[in-house]
Target: EamA domain-containing protein
Amino acid sequence: MARTRVVTLPGRSLAGRPVALVLLAVVSVQFGGALAATLLPIVGVVGSVTLRLVLATAVLWLFVRPRLRGRSAADWSVVGLFAVALTTMNLAFYGSLARLPIGVAVTIEFLGPLALAAVLSRRVRDGAAVLAALLGVTLISGALTTPWAELDLVGILLAASAGACWAAYIVLSRRTGARFAGLDGIAICMALGAVVMLPVGLLTAGTDLWSADVLLRGLGIALLSSAVPYSLELLALRRLRSGTFGVLLSLEPAAAALAGLLVLGQVLSAPQLVGMVLVVTASIVVLGRPRAGEPLPDASPSGR
Model:
């Protein structure tokens, strides 16, 4: 975003500290997710996703004026699939937040991009790391200590589905980036999702969707989950190697657990924390290595 204002620190601008920018983006996304969890009981999953997409689109389009004319059918097909992946990912993830602690949901979801990176690398070490991550997710979900009948299988399935959509989002993000300059692709993608979700959101949430408290929370989610991390990552990825970015991205489950504790009062058990450490470690192994010929922006998780 060319018009993004950068906060200046004494002696050195924040833009000159890409690691700090990515860490701020990671924390911002997860606190946005925690704020979304407080909105779910009021307007539901569909209403929350609708607010997120509509308000985030409005904020993004203040800074981005995507070119719509002259696009080919192939361009619209790719960005349309991108919008489907983004919207479905948000619906599945918010659905999991209604049933699981945010730290658990994000850890399970994180298997999506982790598995994708391991498959693309085709290295035995990365495959072993994914197996370790699967063990971590087993501990996180409580499958070893909780009776099968008491497991929230729907929540686990929704989080896993969100992870699969996240992997699809990454693939389609690269294809969209090859066809649309700058942030045009994500701006159009979010607008398409917002247009589809708005009537559904109005139908399910009704007038609650436009109450002052709901709109304020929705705006906070749009800023924390979309506008702020987009801007921070865009600045950071101009100077940061993809391997370093991958390591920082791997801290998302831990950031989610922190956000869940501070915002929602959610406390994870010792086995769940061990499972989270396994997933974070596996992520660092898989995502922390630069990949030849891969553009830096491809590593970005923006859009969740």
Residues 16-299 form one domain. Strands lie at 8-9, 12-13.
